[in-house]
Amino acid sequence: MSEVMERPAVTTPNRAPMTPDAMIEKYVALRDRKKAIEDRHKTELAPFNELLDKLEGWLLEALNAADLQSMRSPHGTAYKSVRTAAKVTDWKLALDFILERKLYELLEARVSKTAAFAIIDETKLPIPGVDTTSEVVVNIRRASGGGK
């Protein structure tokens, strides 16, 4: 059975006492500022990422035209690799295929945390071979009126 753990409070020496309202206000403001910086960085990085994508495309064309797997220069090496992905689009169809052919290696070794906690809650017993943890954390939601 899992136990809910309390995350230890962070203590800051020499900090002037703040009310919970002031801490929430500060947290929301810092989170907004962080998001603005992330958005700005995304915008600032966009032209660099576009140019990097173009250069990768041109280098791939050069490698293909020269029938090469890699190309070395004094500044570095460009090389081809294969990027793969496997995405389930119809779980029932995929699972039937796996079970019929006993292709269990297609399955990942993890369980649904939602289902695991539901079973533990219902049976009041741990699931053999599955370690579960829960911890109490603090979340901050902005006031619906803007907080001012």
Distance between the termini: 43 Å
Number of domains: 2
Question: Rough shape?
Answer: flat
Low-confidence stretches: none
Major sheet characteristics: 2 strands, parallel
How are the strands of the biggest sheet laid out side by side?
1-4
Q: Structural class per helix/strand content?
A: mainly alpha
Radius of gyration: 26 Å
Look at the structure and give the mean pLDDT: 90
Strand content: 5-15%
Q: What order do the SSEs take from the amino end to the carboxyl end, as H and E? A: EHEEHHE
Helix count equals 3
Total beta-strand segments: 4
Percentage of residues assigned to helices: 40-55%
Provide a descriptive summary of the structure in words.
With 148 residues, the chain is mostly helical. It has two domains: 19-84, no CATH class; 85-134, no CATH class. 46% of the residues lie in helices and 9% in strands. It contains three helices and four strands. The protein has helices at residues 20-65, 91-101, 113-123, and strands spanning 4-6, 70-73, 76-79, 134-136. A two-stranded parallel sheet has the order 1-4. It has a two-stranded antiparallel ribbon with strand order 2-3. A hairpin with a 2-residue loop joins β2 and β3 (76-79). The two termini are 43 Å apart.
